[in-house]
Fold these 2 entries.
Entry 1:
Amino acid sequence: MNAAYLARRFASVLVVLVIVSITVFAITLILPGNAAVMILGEYATPEQLRVLELELGLDRPWHVQYLSWMGNLLGGDWGTSMRLSLPVAGLITEALWRSAALAAAALVIVTVIAIPLGIIAALKRGTWADLSISLFAYLGTAVPEFVTATLLLVFFAAPDRGWFPAGGFVPAAESIWLFLYHMCLPAATLSLILTAHIARQVRSEMSDVLGSDYVRAARLKGLPERTVVMRHGLRNAMAPAVAVISLDVGYLLGGIIVVEEVFAWPGLGRLIIYALQNRDLPVIQAATLVLATIYALSNLVSDLVIAALDPRVRYA
Amino acid sequence: MREILRHPTGLVGSFLLALVLLAALFGSWLAPYDPQLFHPQARLQGPSAAFWLGTDQFGRDILSRILHGARSTVSFGVGATLLGVAAGAVIGITAGVVGKWVDSLIMRLVDGLLAVPDLLFTLLIVTVIGGGSGHAMLAVAVAFTPGMARISRSAVLSVRTREFVQAATARGESRLYIMAAEVLPNSVGPLIVEATIRVSFAIMLGATLGFLGLGAQPPSTEWGLMISEARQFMFRNPWCVAAPGVAIAMAAMGFNLFGDALRDLIDPRGQR
């Protein structure tokens, strides 16, 4: 992996982020209902609007507004939430950690469950194990997060059983056990869909690899099946699987919005829904940019991992 | 079609799809009750001979509501996808055919837009243009456009270098003719497959928007909205959230499996 390749990939991530920032800016400022309208509501008088527009600098040309907004963002000034009257940067970092904890839990569950499931399905192709794993995988990709979440609630959080809390959040500093306990159902919801997706991918990559000539050669050499599967099979099946996992970070980021809303988990997703419902512009802009940045970076990381796993990938 | 039915996934997909389409076409006739009719004596009941899937918090028949909602769900999914595919195809094919700086400009834009998760993108658009069923459909269509643009562009690029296009160029045909008569018909296959699978995502996104209160509005029989309305009562009657949930899953799975089978049919090399 040479320096020029790294530099080029970083540059393309930067370009993507600039475009995202322009889009977010455009969506929230140029389309009907600008910030002043959003703050004052639809029934504000034209005079009120004009005063606020001048105050917010909305009378300036759009590229000047964009550049000053970007300048502030990069300088660490993310503005103040219009509804909560708190600095946006603080709100977002706090929410981001909680979301990250949830996402990390989901990713760990997924990796532990999905990859072995995919391998089993590929090794036992055509058996009932394969069929039921595939069926589960299809089912998982066809059930939206809010349905899974609601059904899990019905089964595991019914008041007469009370196995799990129906939602909410306890800071880890207060009680690590309650923190994890509240995390169970949301993390399970997120991982169900991802597990389905990734298991399916691992299965298809693994069965391609297991049918290849070099795996047949390894078997003919008399290597134990375990070595064949783990060293020759898994390693070569992992690169495409990693690509899918990184794509799933996109699903995860979308899913987390719904899941946090259903389980009242005060993370970035819930913050975004709150900001959207209350037209809290600075929060919407910053949170969207943060999510897009995470997504772009995860794509970058996956490219690098794939390049490291598969020496044939040319750094073009 | 016979080829599709031979695959287990194709068979299940076709079956589910037929079921959902049947409900969408004839649901309002098949429904045993008026979907908005209150049965105050029979609220939050489980399945019975009178109410096959039970009743909701107002005593409305859940089966009738689901059958009624099928049409709006399917038309939402298909409508949003068609709009998104049409817009994406125009953009992607233009990029692929014109090439040069137009291509790089469009594709950079597409890359940027793809960095925003679909759901967040739709939420942003709905916030700006306002909620409601029509707006939600438009928002999903816009969110699909960049992805479809990228797929149609790559379909065009893979066709463009083929001999019959070169032959047309050599004959001195105009660019427009080549695009409409040679490139487009030959890049349609992957687009149809992708579109079929996308319908299932559109259905799920639409239901999610309905659930969040940003899509269809009460007293609509939209399935996501049904779940959201019944949430307060789900512990008293799980059927009022489970039944619409299963309906969404069936519709999404039908389109998804059918699309997968279609892909295997069109591109046997990708078969797994």
Entry 2:
Amino acid sequence: MMKKDIMICGVGGQGTVLASKIIAASAMDEGSAVHSAETIGMAQRGGPVTSHVRIGDDAYSPLIPIGGADLLIAFEPSEAVRNLRYLKKDGFVIVNSVPMKPTTLGAGEGYDGKAEIEYLTSKCRCLIVDSDELCAPFGSSKFFNIAVLGAAAGTGELGIGADTIRTIIVKIVPERFHEKNLAAFAAGYKIGENR
Amino acid sequence: MSKKYVMGNGAIALGALSAGVDLVAGYPGTPSSEIIETVAKYPHEGTYVEWSVNEKAAMEVASAAAYCGARAMVTMKQVGLNVASDPLMSLAYVGVKGGMVVVSADDPGPISSQTEQDTRRFAEFARIPVFDPSSPEEAFEMVQDAFEYSEKYKTPVILRPTTRVDHAYASIDAPDSFKAKEYEGFVKDSKKWVIFPRLSYMNHATIEKRNIEIGEDFSSYRFNTVSGSSEKAVIATGVSYAYSAEFLKDYPDVRLIKVGTPYPLPESFLLKALDGVSEILCFEELSPFIEESLLKLIGKHRLNIEVRGKLTGDVPPNGENDADSARRIISRFLGLDVSEKTADLSDAPKPPMRPPVLCAGCPHRASFYAVKRAMKGRKAYFCGDIGCYTLGNAMPLDMVDTCLCMGAGITMAQGFNHMDSDAVAISFTGDSTFFASGITGVVNAVYNAADMIVCVLDNSTTAMTGHQPHPGTGRNMMATPVEKVSIEKILTAVGVKKVVTVDPLDLDAAISAVKDCAEIKGVKAIIFKSTCVAITKPTGKMTVDSDKCVGCLRCIKEIGCPALSVCGGKAVIDENLCTGCGLCSKLCAIGAIGGVE
């Protein structure tokens, strides 16, 4: 039976919740027990958000312990660093290199995410993805949440079959978005596979 | 039957539906809001569901159902129980016929709340039983048990989940459609249902005697458990039990006691579980409820057990527990050596602060900005309230001087007016908050001849908690179109001198409305009406003409919209975030921002 702790992090509004829902549903579809937890409430308005997805019967609580995550999927470079303590020593990080600048005046001045990406590369096994580049063919960075799942599946670090995830995307996402989302998933998969 | 992957709140809803709940009422509040939404979502026959105007209304509506012998559930967040405490305290004396479960969700952290209050204290205060689930799976079963206990002992019963149980997802095996339980109906008996001093005197004695019986009953309840047999024991409740159990799975000999029913205390169970214990760590969140209960129990039975926890400084007095604090605190208590599991990260770049902000295009930003511009150079107090618009306090808007509790914006602005009549007293209240507890405040201000401006930020939804309908929206939870309750007519009817409705995105008109109102004596009101951007499709996009932009950054410095940032010394607009509200274009002095609104 598979056992995997996956953390997804980003900034409120980036679409992390849908990504975690698809991972959870896919793992269950493959017969695993799943528990997960989301950030809901005030922090959703542009604050840091995390989703904890725990696959396997071993999870007693919904939150991944520090040093417990097998995989960290970060929608933003500084959020990857903020949550790096959750990663296992030999864990894997998939990180979007495009920064989200904080809106609050004076906060994070000069922040461009470059130092964070450099730090992550020096510290752990990781795959760096550029959401602008990856999502350009689909017309909106809103497709990044599906594309990054493709990348995660492509690397093999997710431990869930790409076909299972595709089935779940079709099940969860409204029909008019199927084509673009499946294309975004395929584009991400290619990047993950060719790592 | 089928497996459903639901939030803890969904599990509570499914549990109540499985118990044949006849009526569910509540008021939205994080982390409790999804319970009612889930009840409404699944096919159910004969169950009445409503978003009430506030928690007190919900509690009273549900009480009537329970008097009829029907099963009733009320849902709210912990501070909502403060609002509903008036009916609850009396109801505890009167009792119920049908099962009544009060779900009050606590929020250790606090993550989305004003207080770190502990509903277990409320249960003890009201002398009624409380269930404390440690997982969504357990919440699903406990809510069904709670109905049984409520009917067995004819008392309202509290289910107290916390945020990490409410918002954790798990698979629940539940039916696919539900049918409400049949009930007898109300049987008149004024000696039973009309609260009088004599009845309260009689029932008080009965309740105290009954609570000893419930404690005994709880002593064999399946969610009060003990594992391991060490002399040093850990006792935990709620989600703190889940964290403890996960850490202690590698140490199965360590005695771990779980209390699923903190009040009335299952004394016999605990006395047995504590047999042979010399020292015990209480791992719980919010108040030291179990810790103090144990100290009483140990004193009463003259046991020689050292109790550690919040009172001894072993567990922090505030904030939430998690897997990591369980590992640190329990290993220190047991004298275990646990090595660090992560690489050294002390050299990591410091991530930027990201305080929550109003969404790009949020009409509240425009409302605050209009009032700010109109009051420039004047002494004014800005009293905020509970909702998304509390975020109007963030720089650069800085338009919320106070925020206390639901509805307090209006009444506090009135108080400031009586203390300092030279200043303009202004309150900001959302539409849902206005209905929940704003109206009485306006009446109070009119009655007491205050001089103030009531601003209603009407975005046609209860936005912060996930866009629930309210009396002004024309929709309710039974999905039937209903008459819209008019905020404007209410304000006029209670005697407000001048009531203006204005679109906050029409900046000039909004500024004039505020200026006009400030010139008139008495209570005035401005309804800033514009629908929440999260429930409408964006109408357009604005762009900065970089050839024209001189880089003064006035747009960024004055309104702090998340879609605006600086690139190469000039303002740029993130087209993925912009909704085309056009506020930034109206304050650009050189007309460098244009586009489609």
